[in-house]
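Lecture notes, continued. The same structure-token format from the folding unit now serves as the input rather than the output. Read the line below as a description of shape only.
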């Protein structure tokens, strides 16, 4: 691997090759929702909780201090007001992300969407540029489209993850399939690190922690969870709890103590 890419990956993934990423690129997709109205405030809460990296769009990246956390700049975007919400387009270049100070970049691809071909073309192009500049690439690979009946089915999730690896990503973010055994199939069929997405707001904090724990048991390298972290009543403590599971091998019951809860 390119030496520069290796160095930058160390800012995102700790020595255990695991990571806690909090994406906050939602402002483009759904607007300034609860939790991300004051971006520096939430960033401070997350870094205090020990997250490894924060993912945002370029405009926010220029205006926040991520402290010791890695900075991942999102290159894809589309608002949910669009008639083609699944058709993500490139809104930032690799070079611009580097100028901002990115430790990595991210591209979003919806496998099965009407414009999958364009998104895959973007992914391939960005992967080449990242290799040239020594910049890690996180590919968000989601099965979404008219032919997808279940976005969490093991076959479609494994296919989406594998496409990202095949086209040059360094880390894959994708849906959790619901249990350890099926997600183990996804991990084993993908030659690079996989982190799980958070998806819709979970019903309880314990659910977030247990999903994370189970994903790690299946071989995941960590998580990239947004709303279930930044919309939490105490983003700092949930970050500490997740980091304890990911990096310290804490059980769900032990992690709940950071939140003052018992299972």
């Amino acid at each position: 691997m390119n030496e520069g890419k290796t160095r930058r990956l160390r800012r995102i993934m700790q020595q255990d090759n695991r990571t806690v990423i909090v994406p906050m690129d939602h402002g483009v997709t759904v607007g300034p929702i609860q939790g991300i109205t004051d971006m520096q405030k939430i960033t401070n809460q997350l870094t205090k909780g020990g997250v490894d990296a924060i993912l945002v769009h370029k405009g926010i990246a220029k205006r926040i201090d991520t402290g010791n956390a890695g900075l991942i700049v999102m290159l894809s975007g589309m608002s949910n007001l669009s008639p083609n919400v699944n058709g993500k387009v490139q809104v930032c270049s690799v070079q611009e992300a580097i100028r901002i100070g990115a430790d990595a970049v991210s591209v979003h691809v919806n496998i099965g969407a009407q414009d999958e071909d364009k998104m895959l073309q973007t992914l391939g192009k960005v992967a080449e540029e990242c290799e040239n500049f020594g910049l890690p690439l996180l590919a968000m690979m989601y099965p979404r489209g008219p032919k997808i009946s279940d976005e969490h089915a093991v076959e479609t999730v494994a296919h989406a993850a594998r496409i990202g690896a095949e086209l040059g990503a360094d880390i894959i973010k994708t849906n959790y399939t619901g249990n350890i055994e099926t997600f183990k199939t996804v991990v084993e069929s993908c030659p690079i690190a996989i982190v799980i997405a958070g998806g819709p707001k979970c019903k309880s904090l314990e659910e977030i922690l247990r999903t994370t724990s189970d994903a790690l048991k299946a071989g995941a390298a960590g998580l990239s969870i947004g709303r279930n972290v930044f919309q939490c009543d105490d983003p700092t403590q949930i970050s500490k709890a997740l980091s304890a599971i990911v990096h310290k091998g804490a059980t769900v019951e032990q992690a709940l103590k950071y939140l003052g809860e018992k299972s």
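Point for the exam: The chain has one domain: 3-259.
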